[in-house]
Amino acid sequence: MLADIHTESLAELLAQVYSEQATPNGPHILGSSLGRGDIVEIQGGPSSGKTHLLFHLIIDCILPSQHAGWADVAVVFDMDHSFNIIRLNHLLLSRLTRAGGLNASAAESVAQQSLKRLLIFKPSSTLELAATLSHLARHHSSQFSRQNIGIVAIDSVSSRYWPDRFVAEQMRSSLTSHIQPGSKHVTSLHHMLLALESFSRTHRPLIIMTNWGLHSLNNSAPSFYRQHLQPFPTLPSLRLAQSNQSTEINMLLPHPKSMPSLTSHITLQNIDTDVRCNSFETQGGLVQFAMLLRKSGSSVV
């Protein structure tokens, strides 16, 4: 009887109360506000604007409240080891001088203070990423106990796709030759997702994962991409397709219900200029792109 009663830790309870009382002033994408506790996937091909969009969300997080920011800490896991802090600083200064109306000296001062709220980790493997996520709460309490973590970003979650796939294939061969009923082997990606879900429950940041777009679902543009990472969070409405994977693949996958759910999925694509699209400004000029947004419980926005 007691096993049927829902239980949660004090940290989870406090995180839920804080989330309900917090002001919903998160970044806005296509008129939709992304808030605390949301898990967002940004997927797209090369040079489609994934990291550029992430830069602007990070800026929203680390800017002080008087400049329409959260004044929170942003944690970035640079899996590609290519996170361009100079470019981020340029966009930050541009935001402060153009939208904020500050002169160059004042903008530089605000930018320096804002960048102090940015943490960048450079894991060399998915398991190292999982281990870092598992200790992130302790690091936060010892280094930034008076500040909230507003964003946890993984750029890109696909960076270790081929090494992880090679290991998964070896595990699958081993399980096939020594199969036992109900046997499972937890992959490094699953370890990472479990650590990410645990941190999300206790601290409820906005979690953003950029992801490669390898295979389009159809030949028309713009189009969503097929998910190549397994296991990987998905929208609750799409979990049925994931649960229908073949038995051979399921030997390495957790049950879909045990995985965290995406709140939103964003697809970015480079498209021809004659197609209706959105745009953003970069140092090199105006870049046009297509943005498709899927949210939990809704169709394409």
Can you walk through the features of this model?
It is globular and about 60 Å long. 37% of the residues lie in helices and 20% in strands. The chain has an eight-stranded mixed beta sheet with strand order 5-4-6-7-3-10-12-11, with helices on one face. The protein has helices at 10-21, 50-62, 85-99, 104-115, 126-134, 136-143, 161-177, 188-203, 239-243, 247-250, and strands at residues 28-29, 32-33, 39-44, 73-78, 118-121, 149-155, 206-212, 215-216, 225-226, 264-269, 278-282, 285-295.
The average pLDDT score comes to 77
Helix proportion of residues, in percent? 25-40%
Widest β-sheet, arrangement of strands: 5-4-6-7-3-10-12-11
Number of DSSP strands? 12
Straight-line N-to-C gap:
43 Å
Rg of Cα set: 20 Å
Shape: globular
Structural class: alpha/beta
H/E topology pattern = HEEEHEHHEHHEHHEEEHHEEE
Strand composition percent = 15-25%
pLDDT below 50 for ≥5 consecutive residues: which ranges?
Answer: 19-25, 240-252, 273-289
Counting H and I runs of at least 4 residues, what is the number of helices?
10
Quick one: biggest sheet?
8 strands, mixed
